[in-house]
């Protein structure tokens, strides 16, 4: 008997489907769909950023891009709800712009809700979006889907993994995560939470693959704090640190370092200021870490300045690029000042960052990238192979579905799952339909997947 793909792609009461429209076969732009009993559940709705120096199959050249939501937008009456697992741009950034195509409730934790409301206020879009706040570690029902929100560790407050339960099976959706026993925000990773899933007969584990090519274990955010302190405490000149604006733990680390080294902390970049504002509103910013006005920095002695600036990937409009071109309104860098890159160099951005460093060198400003530092000045928020192996052994799913990575990352993740004893590993890309139950299989390119431009 020939098994055919349902023409209308409507899941029945015995079906449990996973359909990624973004973030599978690439890093960023996450948009995932789960199908069961004639309804769909969306998990995350993020953006990616166009890099003209990085080869891509997409003809779209807009600066900000999102996954093409046409498939689910045409079926929006079947979309039970949208879950946002955490407030990183590649998981939340497209939602204010795409939500009018969906019109359904949005579920997220209080911190993600704060970020989302700020985005809506700034964009003027989606003013009537119903945002339902779920406490970290909480539960909710969305159509035929029962959701357990599970606290996990990552480089932003309130990251959540999801246990999605249906009458046809259960999916453990990791979202972005790592094993951090000493994070700067939130509680340490708790293995027992995930070990308990082994007794729940998990159908599939849909898992982050970002660092699946790296052996061993990722380092803790606290270890990064110690490394940054060692570098900055030895400096006599101005120090500018550039990193990812959403890493609140890193910003808190730098705040503590500023206080310990007798420096004043200032933030350069709207995204960073907005993220800290949200952290303050939700109680994550310590009261004993003051910030000074960016306009005051230029009047301070060099050895009292610690600036955190956006633009670690060489973005032309970010604060660090303006500093490198001597056109920032609040500070002129001088000879022997130090710029630290407390971030990973994202593949494809090498030429942009090289150009930025050349501009800083012309000013005789010293630079230190994380890959060249003797001290640990950056740690990833994603799991290495050792962590992947442990989580697969904790959860013991029947199927592993690696996502959030390019083809090599996904294949490496599948290899870890196989070695950890997971019976089946399904690999694919955006637009593939992963049938998880009742008869597991993958339908390649069941849905047309692509990208659209987002006015940001």
Automatic annotation (TrEMBL):
Secretion signal span: none
Residues annotated as domain Metallo-beta-lactamase: 28-228
UniProt xrefs under SMART domains: Lactamase_B
Sorted UniProt keywords: Exonuclease, Hydrolase, Metal-binding, Nuclease, RNA-binding, Zinc
InterPro entries xref list: Metallo-B-lactamas, RibonucZ/Hydroxyglut_hydro, RMMBL, RNase_J_2, RNase_J_b_CASP
UniProt keyword Transport present: no
CDD domains: RNaseJ_MBL-fold (cd07714)
One of the record's GO molecular function terms: RNA binding
One Pfam family, short name: RMMBL
Name of the protein in its database record: Ribonuclease J
Lineage summary: Bacteria, Pseudomonadati, Pseudomonadota, Gammaproteobacteria, Chromatiales
């Amino acid at each position: 008997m020939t098994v055919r793909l349902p023409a209308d792609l409507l899941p029945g009461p015995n079906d449990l489907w996973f359909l990624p429209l973004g973030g599978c076969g690439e890093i960023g732009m996450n948009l995932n769909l789960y199908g069961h009993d004639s309804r769909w559940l969306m998990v995350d709705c993020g953006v990616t950023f166009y890099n003209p120096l990085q080869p891509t199959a997409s003809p779209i050249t807009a600066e900000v891009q999102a996954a093409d939501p046409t498939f689910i937008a045409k079926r929006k009456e079947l979309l039970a709800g949208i879950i946002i697992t955490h407030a990183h741009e590649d998981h939340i950034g497209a939602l204010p712009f795409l939500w009018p195509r969906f019109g359904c409730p949005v579920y997220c934790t209080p911190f993600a809700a704060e970020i989302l409301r700020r985005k809506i206020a700034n964009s003027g879009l989606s003013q009537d979006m119903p945002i339902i706040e779920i406490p970290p570690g909480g539960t909710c029902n969305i159509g035929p889907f029962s959701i357990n929100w599970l606290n996990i560790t990552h480089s932003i407050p309130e990251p959540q993994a999801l246990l999605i339960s249906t009458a046809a099976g259960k999916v453990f959706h990791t979202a972005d995560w790592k094993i951090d026993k000493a994070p700067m925000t939130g509680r340490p990773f708790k293995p027992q939470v995930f070990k308990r899933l082994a007794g729940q007969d998990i159908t599939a584990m849909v898992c982050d693959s970002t660092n699946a090519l790296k052996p061993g274990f990722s380092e803790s955010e606290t270890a990064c704090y110690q490394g940054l302190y060692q570098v900055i405490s030895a400096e006599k000149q101005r120090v500018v640190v550039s990193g990812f604006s959403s890493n609140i733990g890193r910003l808190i680390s730098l705040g503590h370092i500023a206080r310990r080294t007798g420096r004043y902390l200032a933030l350069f970049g709207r995204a960073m200021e907005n993220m800290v504002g949200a952290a303050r509103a939700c109680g994550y910013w310590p009261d004993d870490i003051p910030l000074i006005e960016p306009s005051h920095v230029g009047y301070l002695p060099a050895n009292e300045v610690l600036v955190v600036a956006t633009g670690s990937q060489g973005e032309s409009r970010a604060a660090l690029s303006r500093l490198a071109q001597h056109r920032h309104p609040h500070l002129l860098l001088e000879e022997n000042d130090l710029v630290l890159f407390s971030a990973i160099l994202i593949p494809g951005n090498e030429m942009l960052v090289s150009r930025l460093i050349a501009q800083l060198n012309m000013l005789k400003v010293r630079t230190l990238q994380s890959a060249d530092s003797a001290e640990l000045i950056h740690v990833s928020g994603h799991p290495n192979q050792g962590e992947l192996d442990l989580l697969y052994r904790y959860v013991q799913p029947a199927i592993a579905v690696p996502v959030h990575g390019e083809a090599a990352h996904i294949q490496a993740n599948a290899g870890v799952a196989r070695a950890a004893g997971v019976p089946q590993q399904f690999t694919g890309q955006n637009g593939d339909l992963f049938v998880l139950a009742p008869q597991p299989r993958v339908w390649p390119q069941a849905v047309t997947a692509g990208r659209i431009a987002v006015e940001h």
